[in-house]
Write a structure and sequence with these properties.
With about 450 residues, the chain is α+β, with helices and mostly antiparallel strands. It contains eleven helices and 15 strands. It has helices at about 1-65, 110-125, 155-160, 175-180, 195-200, 220-230, 235-245, 315-325, 335-340, 345-350, 425-435, and strands at about 70-80, 80-95, 100, 105-110, 265-270, 270-275, 280-285, 290, 310, 365-370, 375, 390-395, 400-405, 410-415, 415-420. The strands form four sheets. The chain has an eight-stranded antiparallel β-sheet with strand order 3-2-1-14-13-12-11-10, with helices on both faces. The chain has a three-stranded mixed β-sheet with strand order 6-5-15, with no helix packed on it. The protein has a two-stranded antiparallel ribbon with strand order 4-9. The termini are far apart.
């Protein structure tokens, strides 16, 4: 009887163990089912959100093309490292009936500036230049004068932040000193070298003492010559070695790699669009911008660090994502964060504070300036709900970008129509569509 009880106890123990195992298995199955259901629900929500984003962006793009405000565009959006929207719309060349495609090359104009700025910062990380180096260390002849004052010192940092006292010809009267010195803004195609253009610029008096104000300028073209000399090669090669090469931006450079894929340029004016001529003078609020789009195909054109690059939307998105993801393979995390942090207002705070309402509004209401682009400091004043330190810039041929690290968003819109693709209602409507806000 005792033996039978012992056997029964063992059997009961085994049965209990099996029961426990069965309960555990059932729990695991239930949890897996819940996880699968949760994953399916999340995937469904993601798909729904993606469809809503596409619907909003498509509506903005379709309207702009239908109204003729842009001839064509390629727009891409990445969220948390994943491309969630990519579309080519309209025509790359209306006269040839060539549709836009993801491979279309665009004249990047001033969207060249962030790439050149990244190259300069990469050289600084390597100890090959210092941000507080005087520019004369690299370009001894670059000594523009300041009326009534001793020779000013312009540093690499001043160039990077547009606080050097320089200007652009298109932002001054047609008979201004830049025009009289025949300085190129980098959008036309004079038969001169980069060195010659910088020499001409050096003959123009500075507009203010370096480090005391902000003015959009040819500073990045000067920076390009510094990058070239410090890097020990021509500017296109140094940029390729430090930025575009490591990121696999194989379709981006200082001239179009495939003429057949280069978008034709257009101008929206007086309520309609027309194709740019060989030389196109486009009026602006102060003066006019001189375009010679053929420079993108001219092997002899000097490499304008501030306005001369050509590339694709997919390539540019790689660059934005590298900066967003703490520098990727091109910059250290602290440097990448510095690009998208205000570098100007702290320097100019004492001067700006005496100008009512101008503090933290160097570029536009709510925007300061980092390295290579504007930085959103007061989101409540922006025209779209970007996060703190959203980084943004545009290009005169009709392009713009923003990178919002706080919300994990990188956005690029390359169009072939100026000025509508660069700024204004179209650009704002696209940004609002990304965030789902009106």
């Amino acid at each position: 009887m005792q033996k039978q009880k012992k056997i029964s106890g063992v059997f009961a123990g085994k049965l209990a163990s099996r029961f426990v195992v069965l309960i555990v298995v059932l729990l695991v199955v239930a949890l897996c089912a819940l996880a699968t259901a949760g994953g399916a629900a999340a995937a469904s929500d993601k798909k729904t959100a993606g469809a809503a984003l596409a619907q909003r962006l498509d509506a903005v793009l379709n309207k702009a093309v239908a109204e003729g405000r842009i001839v064509g565009a390629v727009v891409m959006v990445a969220r948390q490292g994943q491309v969630v929207y990519a579309r080519a719309v309209g025509m790359a060349d209306a006269e040839k009936s060539t549709p836009m495609s993801p491979d279309t090359r665009f004249r990047l104009a001033s969207m060249s500036k962030p790439i050149t700025s990244a190259a300069a910062l990469a050289l600084a990380e390597k100890g090959m230049i210092a941000l507080d180096d005087p520019v004369t260390r690299w370009i001894p002849s670059f000594t523009p004068a300041l009326a009534g004052k001793a020779d000013p010192v312009i540093t690499v940092r001043h160039l990077l932040t547009h606080t050097a006292g320089l200007s652009y010809g298109f932002s001054e009267p047609p008979d201004g000193p830049m025009a009289l010195a025949e300085v190129s803004d980098g959008l036309d195609d004079p038969p001169i070298t980069l060195e010659e253009n910088i020499w001409r610029l050096a003959t123009v008096p500075l507009y203010y003492e370096p480090g005391t104000d902000w003015k959009y300028s040819l500073a990045i073209d000067v920076l390009g010559e510094v990058v070239s000399r410090a890097g020990g090669d021509n500017l296109p090669n140094v940029v390729q070695q430090l930025v575009t090469g490591p990121l696999g931006m194989t379709r981006t450079g200082f001239m179009a790699d495939d003429p057949d894929l280069l978008a034709a340029p257009y101008v929206w004016a007086n309520g309609k669009t027309h194709r740019m001529g060989e030389t196109e003078i486009v009026p602006n609020a102060v003066s006019a911008t001189r375009f010679q789009p053929g420079r993108a195909l001219d092997e002899q054109a000097f490499p304008s660090a501030g306005a001369g690059m050509v590339g694709t939307a997919a390539d540019y998105l790689k660059f934005l994502e590298a900066v967003r993801e703490n520098g990727g393979s091109i910059l250290k995390p602290d440097t990448a964060k510095a690009m998208t942090a205000d570098q100007v207002c702290p320097i100019l705070s004492q001067r700006l504070s005496v100008t009512a309402g101008k503090t933290n509004e160097v570029v536009a209401p709510g925007w300061g300036f980092g390295f290579g682009g504007a930085v959103l400091l007061r989101p409540e004043k922006a025209e779209y709900p970007g996060g703190q330190n959203t980084w943004s810039w545009s290009g005169a041929y009709g392009s713009h970008f923003f990178m919002d690290r706080a919300n994990g968003i990188s956005f690029v819109a390359l169009t072939n129509t100026t000025p509508t693709g660069m700024a204004g209602p179209f650009a704002v409507d696209l940004a609002r569509a990304v965030y789902g806000k009106k």
